[in-house]
Amino acid sequence: MKRALLSVFDKTGLVALAQGLIARDFELVSTGGTKRALEAAGLPVTGVETVTGFPEMLDGRVKTLHPKIHAGILAKREVASHMAALAAHDITPIEVVVVNLYPFAATIAKPDTTRAEAIEQIDIGGPSALRAAAKNADAVWAVVDPADYAQVLTGIDEDDSALRARLAAKVFQTTAAYDAQIAAYLDPEPFPATFTSTFTKQQSLRYGENSHQDAAFYVSPDAPAESLAHAQQLHGKALSFNNIRDADATLAMVNEYQQPTVVAVKHMNPCGIGQSATIEEAWDKAYAADPMSIFGGIIALNRPVDLATAEKMHKLFLEIIMAPSFDDDAYAVLAKKKNLRLLTVTLAPAQTKPRVETVAVLGGVLRQTTDTAIETAADLTVVTQTQPTTEQIDAMLFAQQVVKHVKSNAIVIAKQGQTLGIGAGQMNRIGSVEIALKQAQQNANFAGAVMASDAFFPMDDCVEYAAQHDIKAIIQPGGSIRDQDSIAMADKYGIAMVTTGVRHFRH
């Protein structure tokens, strides 16, 4: 009779698998709760302590860590000395190892979990048995995922060595991810000497940025609730690579605002942001900010979508609409467009602490804390003779909060609660100023607009151009060796200028 070792935390599909193994003339060896579950199903099962001649001990910390288990797994069947050693020590070879691991990630996700509780969810025997089986995959089935049980039974029947090899690789992927989660928990230092991360494929994508590129979407086991990884798609086509990038950028923006806000994004840059007393009015402002660029845009709202707002959005071609929820009648209107993607998302609480973000480069990654800085009136230093009005300060602070989400060099023209023009990603700052102002001056709401810059002005040409195009107040970080030139230019034209001391580059 052949032997199979079953020791699982997740009992999904266990009984059916065990029945299938018994039907294929396997003796079942098991531990603790797994053994009890099999006995409760009326299946014959041998306790691991009977095989090892040694009881489970240390509150279950030691169960399968024994030569009679590991030698039975690791013996190379084609090596005569290995098989002779098994016979000499009365060890039966183990042909199938079915193990899944203690739920470490789920345990530490609970806010009240103590360190001692987390430590007890670090599986030792499970990974050891799985790694041994995966190492010897030429002869042993290493099974870590209940989703694979059905194909394992078929594979046993067909002696499918290719499947055994794939399952072995899956074991090492699983244990590597498991160890990475434990290491991150034990050492929360964001920049350790060795950085190991783990992700699970959530979906294959039709293609990447372009149709000739392959792609997939992977998510982190500790992805925050307000991330796209936890969004629920209610309607429309599957998200594309570019949809996911844009939607992620849009969520990062809308998560910063507390009052009713609508964010419209194209190619990871905002093309319109509106704030008001109601979400419908916020939509009106976001749309009016740039009615051309919003075509095909990604929209995020930080309030439930009501019917009035839905009817206005329905008139446009939009790729994605994200919100905490959709009123039933609003959803009915928007769902008439079969390809429009509708997603519900969780929004972050106010004043979210900085996280660490990772960006891939060829041969490595860059890691940094996220830019969560939001300037207030107390952070502003007036550097010009002209003092800004209260209304201008409010508008500048709004523009400053937007500019950090725009690709550098970044310029935002705005009034309180509405962007009017955005210049993004230009190789020189004056180019961004020109683009932003050209767009803004087409807006009927332009009079009294202010300008924000993500970094200092290296010379006074940006200030002069803004002054010549009716900008009356400017917010910028300051810090250039030629700051005084820009300040003098602002004074020449009677512009109020404030500095923040905080740069907001976004590359």
Terminal-residue CA separation = 63 Å
Q: Give the fraction of residues assigned to helices.
A: 25-40%
Q: Structural class, judged by helices and strands?
A: alpha/beta
The major pleated sheet works out as: 6 strands, mixed
Low-confidence stretches: none
Helix count equals 18
From the spread of the alpha carbons, the general shape counts as elongated
Global mean pLDDT: 93
**Percentage of residues in DSSP E strands:** 15-25%
Instruction: Tell me how many strands there are.
Output: 21
Kindly provide the radius of gyration, computed on alpha-carbon positions and rounded to a whole number of angstroms.
30 Å
The strand line-up of the biggest sheet is: 8-13-12-11-9-10
